[in-house]
Amino acid sequence: MTAPIPEEKLRLGGMALRNGLLVHGPTHWAAAVRTDSGEIKVASGPKPDLGGKRAEAVPGVRGVLKLAEAMAVIPLVKRALPEARLPMQDARTIGAMGAAALGGQAIRSAGARRRAAGDPPGRVGNVGRETAVALISLAPALLALRSGELAAYHGVEHKSIAAYEDDATAADARKEHDRCGSHLVTPMLAAAALGNVAIRRAGLRGPAAEAAVGLGSAAVAVEVFAWGERNPDSRLTRLLRRPGHEIQRAVGTREPTPEQLEVGAAALAEILRVEQAA
Q: Domain residues for 76?
């Protein structure tokens, strides 16, 4: 298991881009991309403050706010670095998102027709149906990772941050990381499936109810993730992380080239520079 972050090191996170890397520090972000002409371009800036630090003692709320702050960085990156290509910035991925939404709606509609006809729930049942919907919603992200260079830059993210934390070289670091967002998948899907069953049994429908379930499942997933960080040697932590490690190993990451690692080194150097200045 990954050792705790040394006290003298910054806690860094990141997001792979299709042509580079975005790194989050405690107060700033930094990104580096390789342009079509082969040039490495770098940009950085302060992170938006949506109240994440002030809510650090409030379970559930803190995780949602931290995720919101991470998402709020994305338009800032695009504005400062127009050459950056986002993970979902692809026609195939956008099409897959639409297909996944239609597929999930079709599964729920089939269940609603069964209930209206007075049929018994059958072998699948409500929980199984919502689990299927949750799994289908994961498909666009997996498709995005499998296309282009995104998986390789996901490997750059993990190797660059691990090398910084361990005072090693990025080329020698593992491409899987214990703080990867893939470890949010299992608790988030489980919470979303159970939450959607609960709201439907309560007679709630519509975007507001589904948004509440989405926020709730994200909050649960982040709390489970944080518990795993506090208890890295727990058997339950290892069990919860296994699906995420398999996603990283088989789909989510690929060994990067030296040129891609060079982009990661530029992003890492920039985040350390702006955080030190701050």
A: 1-87+258-278
Nearest-angstrom CA–CA distance, 72 and 157 = 19
Which string of DSSP letters, residue by residue, matches 91-146? HHHHHHHHHHHHHHHHHHHHHHHHHHTT---TTTHHHHHHHHHHHHHHHHHHHHHH
Q: Is residue 98 part of a domain?
A: no
Q: How does pLDDT run across 145-173, given as a tens digit for each residue?
A: 666 689 999 999 999 999 999 999 999 99
Tell whether 29 is covered by a domain: yes
Task: At 106, give phi and psi (nearest 5°).
Answer: -65, -40
For residue 10, which of 21, 23, 26 has the smallest C-alpha distance? 26
pTM above 0.70? Answer: yes
Tell me 13's DSSP state.
Answer: E
Would you state the structure tokens that stand for residue 236, as one six-digit string? Answer: 């339950």
The number of folded domains in the chain is: 1
Question: Do 147 and 92 form a contact (C-beta atoms < 8 A)?
Answer: yes
Token pair recorded at residue 111: 């269940």
